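User: I'm putting together a teaching handout on how multi-component assemblies are represented. Below are the sequence lines for each component of a complex, exactly as they appear in our records. Could you produce the 3D structure of the whole assembly as structure tokens, so the students can see both representations side by side? Please keep the chain order the same as the input.
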Amino acid sequence: MRTMRFVCASIAAGLLTGSSPVFAQDAQTLRQDIDQLRRDFEALKQQYGDRLTALETKLAAAEGAPPAAAAAQPAPAQPAPVQAAGAQPTAQVPTGAEGAGGPSGSLPIYGNASAGSKIFNPDIAVIGDFLGAVGKNDLHPDPFGPGSEPRALQLHESEASFQAVVDPYARADFFLSFGEEGVNVEEGYITFTSLPGGLLTRVGKMRAAFGKVNSLHNHVLPWADRPLVSNNLVGGEDGISDAGISVARLIPNPWLFLEATGQIFRGDSGPDEQPLYRASTRSDVSYVTHLRGYHDLTENTNIDLGFSWSRGHNATGQLDAGDPGRFTTNLYGIDATLRWRPLQRSIYHSFVGRTEWIWSRRDQLNGLQSGLGMYVSGDYQLARRWFAGARYDRSDHADDASLLDTGGSLLLTFWPSEFSQVRGQYRRTNYAFGPTADEFLFQFQFSIGAHGAHPF
Amino acid sequence: MKVLKGFFTVALALIPLAAHAQGKLNVIAATEDLASIGREIAGDRANIESLARGYQDPHFVEPKPSFILKLQKADVLVVVGRELEIGWLPPLIQQSRNGKIQVGAEGYLDPSLHAEILEIPQGQLTRAMGDVHPLGNPHYWLDPENGKRVAKDIADKFSQLRPNDRAFFEQHLADFNGRIDAAEKKWLAAMAPYKGLKVVTYHRSFPNFAQRFGLDIMGYVEPRPGIPPTPQHTLDLENEMKRQNVKLILVEPYFDLKTPKKIASDVGGDVLVMPPSVGGVKEVTDYFKLFDYDINLLVEAIKKTGGGK
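Assistant: Of course. Below is the structure of the complete assembly, with chains in the same order as your input.
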């Protein structure tokens, strides 16, 4: 306070001397004096501020320290109301609420600090997938999985996604699926977006880039179920989905988009009821390679072609976690997708035709089983919110290629909005053994939270 | 001696290469409007291409892999921003393998951060309101004043990446601003007699246009953003249009005309297919022609129908 008074007095004196005609000085000297005073004043202000901050710090330390220490450092009588930069704001515990083991004195207010930290929270979304089935299927009472429980209605999956940029070099995506059997990390990986050499690298658990359907999540499929070939030859709903590393590179050429992907996984894929790959040693890794070619035929029409190969150890010879047989499965796939979407009416009409052919060569105790499976499907968008589709299925069994299942489906899908979907599917399946199953499947899907990307 | 001569020949041949060592900027714009403004600034110092076509709905562009090839080579990516491209651009950027154009990187430009944005929602937001844009209406380029702001952002970005050409870009920016100011006077004069004219639009694509040129948007054919027309909403809208004597329905080129035409015939009005973007119709080949076309279309229609005035 004394310092302030001195500064004010000095300024006043300076002004008086400057304005008095008796002690008139030339303008330049006066300006120099004023500048000097201003500098002095700034220096004093700085000193004063520093001392105040130091006192506040001491005061804060004294409050947290035992009384003896507090007494040793005299605190100013009036703590300054100024909040020291970076200090946690506090609030007093209300009168009467102190004691009884509860808090006393001042409490930190967490709201301010956490409001800023929320900015870095990942984008969160939850997608619900409710499935129902009517009709008789003696062979597969669970219409959407390999299980034996008859499930007419089920909240098949609730998928929670968390996605954010990690740092300037990478982003991360997590997809947790809460199903009837429990929680599963459907995918969880980091993607390095700008590695040298144009390599797009993913590390984590992911759905493998084998063909088309294997890499798609349930909620972006054009059907309520997965095709027979996925269930019979490629490990069912989860498919080839495992912990591993994926590297993809674009192959430059003047004609088309060409991308080669190489993936290496631990070697465990497929559900326990019908495992596809099972590793019994660390070296039992599985591999997936995929070559994708894409070309715009016209502005409205494009074609997508893929060739895939995968190899891993199957569970045929596994005994007590050992694998004396060392049996492997090789899968070869071709996929083709033709899309038509007139740009100017893109929200009203479109057509997607797809087919996928998969050969499975499975070594097992009774020799090599060489099975083939395929589906072909078409989906036409009738109006902004209506889609009609059909699918034909046929597939041998992986472990006995002489057994052939065939089937077909008709579908109708309605989108109330971009964020929900209702679907009906009539499905007829002729199993190699067991009676023909006629079923009506229905699905409600709904999405809340962050706006995800549209599937392509 | 011959060797020395050869050396000098090579050295001389390399000089122009060194001068243009940075080469032309490779710019990808999300929409044709941004590409058009970009070309005004870039002159011959950049190649600019747009991903979406002007006659397609910019909310629903297919993320085609061929776009990845374009993004892979880009030095600059100019986006509309305000989550307009949220359904298709993020996966393309991610797969582009191009560190320069990742969100927040040097080559990523979001001019919406400096533009005047309308309809920023207040209070509780839910999807019951339809496909709302939580960061405000992204169709901001339909105000020439925002066009100038976009141009400034683009010129700054180009200058940052090609400091040697700064004067060139700034001169182009000044030239663009001058021409926009002159054209804007003409556009405002053409619309001045119809200030406060009530219209209906299909989607919320025209708030900035309406604010600048004095239109009053009374209602929308969509009951809520992104939700197709329902019979009840259409009926309510027709009644309101009759009550307020509203005659004009502005429809973006990518929406179905069935419902707007029915409304127009019921209220004795007119449907205008009004492009909100460069390339929306054949004649609109650049940012200036976009306003020329739209304002001419409006003025002609108002004269024909009386426009409800």
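A couple of points students might notice: Chain A has five helices and 18 strands. Chain A has two domains: 1-64, 131-449.
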